């Protein structure tokens, strides 16, 4: 076991490595050599070594010393990159513009979030009229000096009297909930703890929420989450008095969420055991009925309530419809074979629907870009909502109000919020973008590439005008490819700075996502997961073949499941990329399900305990287990956070230690471990800017 003195010597030698005579950073010549243990697991007769298993214990003092050593070496390396400070200045300037959320309305009040520019957290405002001055309702920047306390959820009671809100500390998935009187602005005594993966759904003078039992001390950030329960909390009471509404005593590894309809007549319960598929239950809130009835009984499809209209439930489902359909359900006879199609499945994915006045505003996804159409409740198409171009649209409306809001964004257009009214047929910009950025100086194309098996997929490319296809452009390829999540055009201030430095941004649509419905999603899961990596590699090869870039000018980046993607790509094809940035990645595919909510990802991944076939498949691509000695790996910057209790940082710790141990080339292999931050949501803007400056300076320097 290394002593702190030995670690200090190692760190100090690592800090004495850098300046070359040209003034550029060199690759680290000395890195910590963490201890290795003789630990093996037996999977169906295959013995798998896990020498860094001890890194899973966040309380281990050797781990804390290793983290400090790695961060010092990483920061010293980054500090010697001349472009880093300049990028931080440029990023700060680019982020410094007002940013607005979609407004929503309760009673006679409008609510919206605004960040004035460089605030760590966005502020919640209320107003009776957009022509007047809005009032601050809740400013999370006052909750901590460093901005590491963020809002996780906000929910307004139907009568507009109360605000229920929850916070996350240091990016953790754990939440604490509170209640505020909206008129007076005063916080009430209500304080709820151990909430996780929950909404806050109002009913009368209280709300439903989901929580776990208090975890064991020391296991708050890594212990397995089991037996989630739904409670009802009445305003003004202690959490101990909350009424237990629902729990599944037979199945500990399931999540459950409660939702009340707009008119507060029905309570719906959605239960899931992974990231895809859910049961759907309901009961009346207008009588003494306590037992829940079943709408959808298992996890073979995803089914959600869109609206309740004239006594019928309107559901969005992919049951017998991979591209989804909208159906009407009679609560007196809710069996799936009695559902009535309102909007049948088509060749375009039906992504969502929002009740707006006397109709539904329906969002479709065509080749990863939004189309929005109005329908009546009988399924008749009324008219399209005109959008500015190729991009993504988000919607906000209520069933009793003809007024609605929508926002449009793309890779080069910051979000613009529109206000519209069905009665007056009016539309105007409510919140325009004031960013110092001219979209006319940039171009976006949607091109197509073919994967290894011939599958055709879109690839979004964005660059600053004047780009030449000569193979010399620094290019960043981004992807995700999992959990039915769509890669759609979206604006990122930090990416625009990369474009300003001559970079090309490439965003690949991959199997495993939801861009083309459930068949597309399933084609990138479990025993077909390699399709996702093949798609990503094919996208990279397309960029090189078409002379947008070359392997010496190509970097890859992805987070969470996208971190797995990058880890698999760099271990399978280290020759194809010059730089790689896996962020908060799932990198140990044999043990991911052992931590916090990891068990819920099994529908996409399968687990090493399922069968020998599944183990063999996971073992064949698990990034941690496919690092080979003597390979010249790309320049790699691994990003993680100490409070990430979604994908625990042990994934990144073990991967970094193994990659540093086995890398034979001169490219740097570094890990950046953010403190007081989690999986990403709610990260203070200052930390976001600092991380972006580090990432893009690392990429641009190594693509020189």
Task: List the keywords.
704 residues, alpha+beta, 8-stranded mixed β-sheet, 5-stranded antiparallel β-sheet, 39 strands, 18% helix, 33% strand
Q: Any overview of this molecule?
A:
18% of the residues lie in helices and 33% in strands. It is globular, with a radius of gyration of 25 Å. The chain is of the alpha+beta class and 704 residues long. It has an 8-stranded mixed β-sheet, sandwiched between helices. Helix 1 (4-15) packs parallel to helix 2 (61-79), helix 3 (83-95) crosses helix 11 and helix 6 packs across helix 7 (561-572).
Structural class: alpha+beta
Helical fraction equals 10-25%
Mean of all residue-level pLDDT scores: 92
User: For the CA atoms, what is the radius of gyration?
Assistant: 25 Å
Number of strands: 39
Work out the helix count: 11
In terms of topology, how is this protein built?
Layout: H1 4-15, E1 40-43, E2 46-49, H2 61-79, H3 83-95, E3 99-100, E4 104-106, E5 109-115, E6 123-127, E7 135-138, E8 149-156, E9 162-169, E10 175-181, E11 187-195, E12 201-203, E13 206-211, E14 229-234, E15 243-247, E16 255-260, E17 266-272, E18 279-284, E19 293-296, E20 303-309, E21 312-317, E22 325-329, E23 340-343, E24 349-356, E25 359-366, E26 369-375, E27 381-385, E28 392-397, E29 403-409, E30 416-421, E31 426-431, E32 442-450, E33 456-464, E34 475-478, H4 493-500, E35 504-508, H5 518-522, H6 530-545, E36 554-559, H7 561-572, E37 579-583, H8 602-605, H9 612-621, E38 635-641, H10 650-662, E39 669-674, H11 685-702
Helix pairs in contact: 1-2, 3-4, 3-11, 6-7
